[in-house]
Amino acid sequence: MIQRLFAVLAGCLLLVGCASAPRSPLPARQDVRDFALEARFALRVTLPGQAAQSSGGRLSWEHKNGGDRILLANPLGIGLAEIEVTPALSRLRTADGRTREAADADALLEEVSGQRLPVRRLPAWLLGQAAQPQDMALDAQGRPARLREAGWQIDYVYDDAAPTALPAGLTLIGEGGVELRLRIEEWKDLP
Fold first, then answer.
1. Nearest-CA neighbor of 103 among 115, 117, 114, 92?
2. CATH code, domain carrying 60
3. Residue 16 domain-assigned?
4. How many domains does the chain have?
5. Domain-located, residue 22
6. Residue 126, number of CB atoms within 10 A of its CB
7. Structure confidence by residue, pLDDT tens digits, 11-63
8. Is residue 3 one of the residues assigned to a domain?
9. CA 40 to chain centre
10. Is a pLDDT exceeding 50 seen at residue 10?
11. What's the pLDDT score for residue 25?
């Protein structure tokens, strides 16, 4: 009985995989304005005199028209929180239904987590855009390799050798013992 159930599930997964639409090619990194991505994250905070605290999970991020919507889930995909950022307001909703709002997304996350995370700058950093070009180091293909900005160091990893490739991973290290790793599994260009 279990073998039969496994065979049926495997067959369904195979059909779903065959039925999925082919992915359209992504534009060059410098041409991306609005995007969506799926990623895994790992956050490690090491405060002076305390043991390091780590957490991780999955995130779905949509950056469109200057606003952001970030869904955070645990490693099993169970929703933990939703962050909405607009030019006027930032809102955090937790899985238990609580909502907090603030004018600044970074301050809102600091209020909730105790750590100031660069939510406002992260869309630009994901695309390798520095506020000051001299803050960016490039790799041999001319892509962003390391960026130092606003007290953060961002290191980029690529799975594609193309000079215009989007990063597959970022490691952000902030002052105060914060390290955030993102492994991007899928990029989508939004019209």
1. 92
2. 2.50.20.10
3. no
4. 1
5. no
6. 24
7. 333 333 343 334 456 777 888 889 999 999 999 998 888 888 899 999 999 99
8. no
9. 7
10. no
11. 64
CB-based contacts of 108-114 (< 8 A; 24+ apart in sequence): 108/83, 109/83
- Quote the CA–CA distance of 147 and 136 in Å, as a whole number: 4
What does residue 5 show for φ and ψ, rounded to 5 degrees? -60, -45
Q: Is residue 106 part of a domain?
A: yes
Range of the domain at 70: 28-189
As a whole number of angstroms, the distance between CA 125 and CA 42 comes to 17
Amino acid at 21: A
How many residues in the chain? 191
CA atoms within 13 A on the CB side of 150: 14
What is the identity of the amino acid at 104? D
User: Which residue in the block uniquely carries the two structure tokens 């600091």?
Assistant: 110
Instruction: State the Cα angle at 184 between 14 and 147, rounded to 5°.
Output: 165
> Dihedral of CA 161/179/107/96: which sign?
positive
- Tell me the whole-structure pTM to 2 decimals: 0.82
